[in-house]
Amino acid sequence: MDVLDLSKLSLAELQAGYNDLRIDPVEVVEITFDQIERVNDELTALYDLRRDPSFVAAKEASRRFRAGIPAGPLDGVPVSIKDSVNASGMVWRHGSKIHGDGIVATVDSPPVAKLKAAGAIIFGKGTMPDFGLSGSGVSSCYGIVRNPWGKSWNPGGSSAGAGASLAAGIGMMSVGTDIAGSVRLPSSHCGLATIKPTQGMIAHTPASDVRSPGPMVRHAGDLEAYLRILGGVHAGDRFSVPVTEPERDFREATVAVYGEFGFGPSVEPAVRQALETAETAMGRLVRRVVDGSRHFDFDAILPMEESFKLRGWREYASVSEAMRANTPKAIFNWFAEAQGWDADRVARFEAGIARGVTQANALFEGVDFLLTPVMPVVNFPAEDRAPDPQNPLRHCTFTAPFNQSGHPAAAICAGFDARGLPIGVQIVGKRFDDVRLCRLAAALETEIWGGAEQDRAWPLVPRD
């Protein structure tokens, strides 16, 4: 087996190979680190790599499989985690030089605890942009993360390293986090699948009512398994909720298609074409597909942007004055106005967010799922923080509303543009309908690609 063979395997296929001893965890870890050595310097996707501990863990997993006593559903499965996800003994930097050498975690975050309990091998961390406040891979700490589909193009963010490494065939899954689209955007840029679950269904710390961890994978059919392993109530997250079982089959669903929400940048033609492809395929899967008829009556991204600016200012202000000088000027200029905001200003944007949540809920009137683009653009240069560098989250108009509303949202690859760059679509479900959403996403991916998976072959040698 080589990295090409491994990249094609679903989680279930890898597990079956382990169980019947056709595949050895040591071989898989060897392939993983060989590919890291081959491409990571080009991509700047991973850091804090754990080569020796990973091989030790793989040998132990190999012994368990030979004895017929695997440690859990992810025994011997190589996975990575995002910079911002704490794992005991690993370094947290939040993508920025303002945190110096970083902070070595002493406690596992809930997703990491779940991974370890399931037997996963955490081999390294994925890089991210400063503060997680851009949908890109531009970082004062790590440099520029590049997309293996084309190194001059952006991998998306803020789970940038996860997207780039998975697209290059490294690991089986990466845990990212999503506050405005940060697992869905890189999945779209990098031709992957992901889910941002119902808020709290995958617990995290510190507890948040908008930020959610999410598994990023090459194959949408893996999403349900990872959701079940990572999900559930955790004492450290007061917003955490259990994984719930679907009441109906997704084939009974009504899906509303939205090519725009009434605000935000214009959608590029290639993105519209991918959405049309997904809409046609969706029509063969569900009971009914309709045009979305409800829209936002204001620019709902604006109050969210203000909340992110305040978040950026607070992180900036939390470090010493000497370290603040390491903040990239572009990001600082974007959030600096929040320094002088009073309670009335905060109350106004919070009211705007609440208004947006009400209108996001209204999109589901009479329908079960929404089908939308992930973002209005296909891609933008790797060196840029966003299509509009002055507004680093402006292209999150299709994704960010559902962080605030708490709805689960999945992304899959639905096509490529003329440059060979991937284009994702988003499927949004009602709260607590995550399992059915995962199944619909997997079925839609299969319906779109069918026997043409060679058209989606991973760029295991990063392209210029």
Question: How does this model look, in words?
Answer:
By secondary structure, this protein is α/β, with parallel strands linked by helices. The chain has a single domain (3-456), classed as Amidase signature (AS) enzymes (Alpha-Beta Complex). Helix content is 36%, strand content 14%. It contains 15 helices and 15 strands. It has helices at residues 3-8, 11-19, 25-43, 51-67, 110-117, 160-167, 184-190, 223-230, 269-283, 301-317, 321-324, 329-335, 343-362, 401-405, 434-449; strands spanning 46-47, 78-82, 91-92, 103-104, 121-126, 138-139, 143-144, 173-178, 193-196, 212-217, 254-257, 288-291, 369-373, 409-416, 422-429. Strands 1-5-2-8-10-9-14-15-13-11-12 form an 11-stranded mixed beta sheet, sandwiched between helices. Strand 6 and strand 7 (143-144) form a beta hairpin. Helix 3 runs antiparallel to helix 4 and helix 10 packs across helix 12 (329-335). The longest helix is centred in the C-terminal third of the chain and has 20 residues, at 343-362. It is globular. The model has no long low-confidence stretch (mean pLDDT 97).
Characteristics of this structure?
464 residues, alpha/beta, Amidase signature (AS) enzymes, 11-stranded mixed sheet, two-stranded antiparallel ribbon, 15 strands, globular
